[in-house]
Fold this sequence. Notes:
The chain is of the alpha+beta class. The chain has helices spanning 3-16, 19-24, 70-78, 82-93, 104-133, 138-146, 151-157, 168-175, 180-185, 248-258, 267-275, 291-298, 312-328; strands at residues 30-32, 35-38, 50-53, 58-61, 67-68, 160-162, 189-192, 195-198, 203-209, 215-222, 230-232, 261-264, 281-283, 303-306, 331-334. It folds into three domains: 3-93, Zinc finger, CHC2-typedomain (DNA Primase, Chain A, Alpha-Beta Complex), CATH 3.90.580.10; 104-239, DNA primase DNAg catalytic core, N-terminal domain; 244-334, Dna Topoisomerase Vi A Subunit, Chain: A, domain 2 (3-Layer(aba) Sandwich). It contains 13 helices and 15 strands. A five-stranded antiparallel sheet has the order 1-2-3-4-5. A four-stranded antiparallel sheet has the order 6-9-10-11, with helices on one face. Strands 13-12-14-15 form a four-stranded parallel sheet, sandwiched between helices. β7 and β8 form a beta hairpin. α1 packs across α4 (82-93) and α3 packs across α4. The longest helix is centred in the middle third of the chain and has 30 residues, at 104-133. The radius of gyration is 22 Å and the shape is globular. The model has no long low-confidence stretch (mean pLDDT 90).
Amino acid sequence: MRNAEMDAFVARVRDASDILNVVASYVPLKKKGRNYWGCCPFHSEKTPSFSVAPEKGFFYCFGCHAGGNVFKFISMIENISYFDAVRLQAEKLGIPMPDREKSEKDIEKERKINDLRRMMEMAQAFFHNCLVKTRYGVAGLQYFSGRGIGADVIEDVSLGFAPDAPGKLRDAFKKRGVKEQLLLEGGLIAERQNGVYDKFRNRVMIPIADDRGHVVGFGGRVMGDGQPKYLNSPETLLFNKRKLLFGLDRAKKSIREEGRAILVEGYMDAISLSAAGIKNVVASLGTAFTVEQCRLLLRNADEICFCYDSDEAGQRATMRALSIVRSTGARARVLIVPDGKD
Length: 342
């Protein structure tokens, strides 16, 4: 890719970006004179010293002296490189990256990722419609109601239900032209000796998104006493549990405003807390807390509150998580809920 092409691309993204809207999506601002003011997201303060000048396209903090253009702000608030900030903003604006020479392997991987993303969006709609528009979803609706999760949360999170049938999704997707191999690679179906079957059956379904809101996998809680109680998507090109936190895409803003993140074990815990008005909560998908997950949270706040189950397994998981947080220099707290277990 020629430098001139890249310069033109960066300039196009910059010109299309409204720094006020970008900053305001992270920081509460109030107009004072020609500029907008708020408490700096990059250091602790009670009196606003952080200023955004829309006409100039710059931000500046008179307390910690952080400042720059829209890309500098995104790179600092998201804890990513300057160029990654340009790419992130371009993606939000729908501005394509300039073409570069790609290997056949790169082209194939990019195509596969796009196909998987489209299929995951289809699966999200399929499970959601099964819950709210068919008789299959009655048990799921009863379960959510028992957890205090109403219709508004079901719509907001796009919760769903997987019918207790071996091939409902498989057959529906094949009719829509989705190849069996892609269903296997996305973890929506699995193989056995006499054929393939739906991976998720008789489960309430929770879509799992990355921190940009792209659905990358699913979690399912079984109805009744079946095992396993919780089932997640397998590892795929999109889904890596070590690098994901359930709910982070929706909780980021509240985490930044509160200055802390509350981490729970399971997605149902996170959904229930969010429904109760606690918005700065994410879940570690039932896995041990990882360094990668810690770094994701530290992009948004420097304090993490652990609220794992109070049983022996939950206490062990908390101790392991605290050792990871200490290695990063972040602040950590532990919230204890007596007999707190799903």
